[in-house]
Inverse folding.
């Protein structure tokens, strides 16, 4: 059975290590700067991997090096591995969404086949996150042999691999940030508005979650223009103006900017779905006027 060495078993790396072992892969080594965290991950794996420090990488005999450190450290870690270990004929993969396989050039020059495999899932804890890969899409790219291995690993995790060109990684990741990270920021802005209505943060989350969940469910089967509901979908000028007055009265300047910018995008979707052109034009005129004032 092939051996996998996970370098940097933090939230994502730890979750992958545990999930890969449950999927039938042999995670033989965990390499970490902080032994305590790595030991907790190792304890969740039936055939416990050996926990090593970065200085011990030369002793690792693995078929696959899975680099799961922070993005800014990937290139340095790849250089350290290439200098310390024999990687000729081995596979080296990283899990960054924004970086391509080119950051592993030191390993490529040392004879490894290099690539990347990024899971489109939010992982906040290594042990809880280990159960969240099934059905998740994995963006893979790199050398043919590395891509083949990445596809196999995604399959072991119950995931679905897909490929993009290497040059497309930064734009792909920006898309993921808007859909996930910015979604959290958007909900936080909505919670600020609810706080002005007297709801606590916990109450606001309870109130909004069913609405958010129903929207996500709609998007699973409908195009965005079809899934859009509410004031902008209807091009409801009267309600829109009431919103503006309420937001301005509450002093939520940052919220207003978010509301207006996303409103422009929503109006484009509303047009696609047949909203009244005159009402759309009027709302768009008001938004652009207000945004102009915001930037002065």
């Amino acid at each position: 059975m092939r051996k996998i060495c996970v370098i940097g078993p933090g939230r994502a790396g730890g979750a992958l290590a545990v999930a890969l072992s449950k999927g039938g892969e042999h995670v033989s080594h965990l390499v970490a700067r902080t032994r305590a965290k790595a030991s907790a991950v190792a304890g969740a794996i039936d055939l416990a991997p050996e926990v090593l420090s970065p200085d011990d990488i030369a002793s690792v005999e693995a078929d696959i090096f899975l680099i799961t450190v922070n993005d800014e450290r990937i290139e340095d870690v790849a250089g350290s591995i290439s200098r310390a270990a024999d990687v000729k004929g081995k596979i080296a993969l990283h899990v960054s969404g924004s970086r391509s396989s080119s950051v592993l050039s030191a390993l490529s020059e040392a004879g490894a086949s290099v690539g990347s495999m990024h899971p489109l899932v939010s992982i906040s804890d290594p042990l809880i996150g280990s159960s969240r890969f099934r059905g998740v899409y994995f963006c893979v790219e790199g050398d043919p042999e590395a891509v083949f291995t990445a596809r196999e690993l995604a399959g072991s995790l119950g995931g679905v691999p897909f490929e993009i060109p290497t040059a497309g990684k930064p734009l792909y990741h920006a898309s993921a940030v808007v859909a996930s990270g910015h979604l959290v920021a958007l909900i936080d802005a909505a919670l600020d508005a609810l706080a002005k209505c007297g709801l606590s943060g916990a109450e606001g989350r309870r109130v909004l979650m069913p609405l958010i969940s129903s929207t996500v469910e709609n998007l699973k089967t409908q195009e965005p223009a079809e899934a859009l509901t509410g004031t902008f979908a209807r091009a409801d000028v009267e309600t829109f103006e009431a919103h503006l007055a309420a937001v301005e009265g509450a002093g939520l300047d940052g919220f207003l900017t978010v509301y207006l910018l996303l409103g422009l995008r929503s109006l484009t979707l509303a047009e696609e779905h047949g909203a009244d052109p005159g009402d759309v034009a009027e709302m768009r005129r008001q938004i652009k006027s207000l945004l102009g004032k915001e930037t002065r």
In short: The longest helix spans residues 201-221.
